[in-house]
Amino acid sequence: MLWDGIWTYEVKELLRKILEGNAEVIIRLGGIVVYGSHIILLVDMLRRGTLVHLLIRDLEGTSIEVPNLVEINEVIKTIRYGLFIADGYIQESRVTIGTSQTWQNILVAFLFPGKIHSNIIGIDVNKKDVKLMWFLRTDYTPGDLLFEINNNTVIAALFGAILGDGSVTIRNVYNYKEPVIDLTNKDFNDVRWRLLLSELVKGGRTYPMHLMFLGSKAIDMARRIVNVMPPTLKELMDALNVSKWVTLREMANMELKWRRGKWVVNVLNYKFSVATNPLMLYHYVKSEDEAQVIINILKENGIEAHRKKSGQYIMVVIPARSLNNNDNIKIQTI
Asked: What Cα–Cα distance (Å) separates residue 119 from each residue in 61, 71, 97, 110?
């Protein structure tokens, strides 16, 4: 009935007005908004393309009662917390999760047993597929998400956040398979993240919008995540065949095929890491002054270098052309 009724007609009318140049378009940061009586068209301009949302007004949902299928221990509580800080918000004083993933609907029901109000709030449209946008309001308050911080709960919270905004990949870098755990969030200065970052950044790199684990750090983190998961949750994730979980499992079983010394070059007693695409050496420092001191020392020894801002750090870069002019560096790099 939904697609045969007023919503179908209004979507067609909105698109017709846009194509004919008769629609009232509101330009906002990162995209545009077009309002209809029952439909809101949102277009987000991303670095890798365009994401279109059709938000449906006044569409009623339903409330369901979900049985408790697992012991609610500290690990389960903190997975809830991680998912909440990635994909959640508060509505009517209750923890609410927004998602367009079917498996995440099931996971939320598993993690938040009890009463859940569920309804469809819109449609995500992109090149690969079309997905329904779900709104899941649990019966839990923010106070129910409090937990004791320890090694296991920090890892569990990270896993919850990965299931929300994170990505888990094993990418090919020439003949080397590099494991990467990358967590994107709008604001890592959020007070909810501060509880976790003091522990997590000991193993990862932080950027203004990212928390990233690479190579051996990613493998270690994947193993720790798999080890702290309750058996019932592991079985559920296996049954749902969630790609992030499948890749985490694969990553946890990986063994690094390289020694770190092959990827670090000693240049005038400074340790530079090797990047291969494009080929360059880089070394992180905390201040502009420290970077300039290193650049001056390198130039005095005939090595070209420059500095580059990288998140909260400064990166001293030795480009490929400088490598070709210095046999000592070139031998170490090759």
From this structure: 4, 27, 11, 17
